[in-house]
Amino acid sequence: ETGVTQSPTHLIKTRGQQVTLRCSSQSGHNTVSWYQQALGQGPQFIFQYYREEENGRGNFPPRFSGLQFPNYSSELNVNALELDDSALYLCASSRRTSGRGNEQFFGPGTRLTVL
Amino acid sequence: DAKTTQPNSMESNEEEPVHLPCNHSTISGTDYIHWYRQLPSQGPEYVIHGLTSNVNNRMASLAIAEDRKSSTLILHRATLRDAAVYYCILRPLGRAGGTSYGKLTFGQGTILTVHP
Hints:
The structure holds two protein chains of two kinds. Chain A is mainly β.
């Protein structure tokens, strides 16, 4: 069973540009969540996707959007990049069943730098 | 979301036990206690979780206070590889289709330093 992978590992963009980050979940995992981690802080929840639909969102503006595909891959898109968007972006996948607290499997992250 | 409080940092020597505390005085009856850790330059990694009873797995033990207002993650013999940021997270029991299912609310965590 392969783990969660993310691409690219590093990315440099300029303010105002758009970026797409990619994640490949573990087989059988139907939920993917995306997090933003600023330097020295804990990860902050952006949103989650379940069965290819956005299914919960944190305190992030609409210029953060995503997609989830049937093949367990997903994307995070950020439009109109701002300097404060510089961070490590993490995706996490899990197999959703009723109740409790199934563990989430995180990828290594994509380091985005906005100049 | 109910909040957790952890010390900013702790230190340990290699091969000694480490007890990482977490306070969660506003925990609700349906909140699970999760621990994740983040090694340098990696994504967070699940460690352990529990509801009321103490839990053991190959990585660690979780001791939960009787009133559930605090918990302790125990690493029985710390190794250099255990140096990481440890996060204590409360995760509510929810429906499989619930909008908070995939959400983990991370705090600042505890930076664990292990000395050789």
